[in-house]
Amino acid sequence: MHLLVCGGTGCRASASDSIAEKLKAELAANNLQDEAQVIQTGCFGFCEKGPIVKVLPDNTFYTQVKPEDAPEIVKEHIIKGRKVERLLYVDPAKKQKVEDSKHMGFYRKQMRIALRNCGFINPENIDEYIARDGYQALGKVLTELDPQQTIDIIKKSGLRGRGGGGFPTGIKWEIASKNKADQKYVVCNADEGDPGAFMDRSILEGDPHSVIEAMAICGYCIGASKGLVYIRAEYPLAIQRLRIAINQAREYGLLGNDIMGTGFNFDINLRYGAGAFVCGEETALIHSMEGLRGEPTNKPPFPAERGYMGKPTNVNNVETFANVPPIILKGADWYSSIGTEKSKGTKVFALAGKINNVGLIEVPMGITLREVIFEIGGGIKNGKKFKAVQTGGPSGGCLTEKHLDIPIDFDNLIAAGSMMGSGGMIVMDEDDCMVSVAKFYLDFTVEESCGKCSPCRIGNKRLYELLDRITKGEGTLEDLDRLRNLSHVIKDTALCGLGQTSPNPVLSTLDNFYDEYVAHVVDKKCPAGQCKSLLRYVIDPEACVGCTACARNCPVNAISGERKKPHEINPDICIKCGACYEKCKFDAIRII
Amino acid sequence: MSHIKLELKPEQVAKIKEICKSFNNDPGELINVLHRTQETFGYLPAEVQEVVAAELNIPVAKVYGVVTFYSFFTMLPKGKHPISICTGTACYVRGAEKVLDEFKRILNVKVGETTPDGNFSLNCLRCVGACGLAPVVLIGEKVYGRVSPDGVKDILKEYQEQQ
Asked: What is the total count of domains within chain A?
């Protein structure tokens, strides 16, 4: 038997380390250490109900496990063969306990290629990766295929860059392979900067060898002997696991000189980011790896011609690499049979926000947003109404009810006014103000703009100021036109991908939620009740029973009134923090 | 640069030189050097940058340019307990702003500042990737999940009692 304990960042924050230790100790105390093994794996994806413990072979899925549950799991499940009922996942729709992960709505529609090993293997043990066909693709490529044949497989598979751009991976490799140079580089972009996205981190934490293997394959194809992973310093666990994996691969002769006796040399080193979103852009990333400020430069020249240290460089995202070994092993036809006409394969999304099942999912291209949000995601939290889903991070846009049934792929999302991006998917409900959401993203872009080109440096700042005015009730209808015009100017003139896409959150909310903007500027009201300057908290004297809960919780003592008599809020003192609104059990606080 | 004038001890200078040397004094490794130096000193004051620049044989302005470009590097010392509020999108839609406001109110500092007693510094960061636990607050290395404005007082108490 195997007890798989999630060792991803989310679950570790909820003491999954100590769960694994307690389970091990409990097994040892019962002399069962040879019968059942405890393995700390990468992310299972179901972060909402973490920490997760999964028991194999019966696939029992325990959620929200605490360290003190360890003795019961061992005594009941392992020794007596009875499942610990209270830790099983309860299907919120059917109100039924689900015994194994195969029957959970969250997993049923998923298809795992990039995440194939996440949650199954111990990422710190290369043997477990090898046992699941690891490094076989590299072996096949080195012994049976020449670089061009390998590139042809990737081209034929239809794999497109998963970092956001969607550029065909095979073509990228081919261009880099044709440029002659004494040294070339393979770079893995693990600078996952989109707030609310954690796909790459989970792959690196859960299955680092898949990325190492694919980088070596890429090195063989383009003729590079050196690989670099540019990874965020904010991901200490991913860095640690990647380091362990690289060292193990070197020990096994899968990295280094004369790999598998074929004369092919390839090794990988790490470079750390230091907290700059713009470094996700490939030219900026290359400058940052060279020890410079991470400012982008004009393309051409593309990195495939002149990249790191002036040499031809191929940059791919973590998830793109993770797809490569299965494509080599199972063939281009298998991969291209999945997905839509122009977007093949699967995509990993990080579902977050006001959704029941926050977590990491991998779905075939062509699935609809409705399936993702309502079936896999389990619908909106607290029974609220769905309002929008934001895809593509600060470069993407907000999609609404009317977009729920379009099949998700690179081109459809762009046509709908958003983009695939790296895979963040933030769900919003009726309480979210779309003007504030646009302002939130602009705040991010203004802070992260490198300042090199004026449209991005100055233009985004002006966009932010316009939005700020609108949320304060100082905007006019002319401001809405100004927002739109300026957005287009920035898109057309900014130097790099950051500036060219930064107005997208503004444009998509203007397109889809124009009425909400109008309410802010004409009626001076925020329909979602989020914009503080446009709100007033009042107490309905009919509903108030005088329980004093609001007055006791008001941080600025703005509420007065006698016990058992209706209370009042002094608007001059009120800071609109909403504490009273949340504390009132009688729905007597009104936001007007 | 920084208004704090500070005199580095000879052993501190030696430590910086040692870090630079471990990266072969290669200017291309500047960011890695700065990471390691900040791990050692807690921050990167001007005086430290001057030593790094001399060792890697690059202008101080270039080092300063890199330090100020990346949000991970800081020229000001952090508090004994550095507080980081995640203001990524997932945390934002689940109420991170209200949590941040409560920290600001109780500690009476702005984002980027340190309390006068040097105990707490308050910062924002973008996404630690624990979106399932949103809103998330980090104090030192410890992650607090599903933090509500009400809970802020209790979290701070854990650290105030240690004093």
From this structure: 5
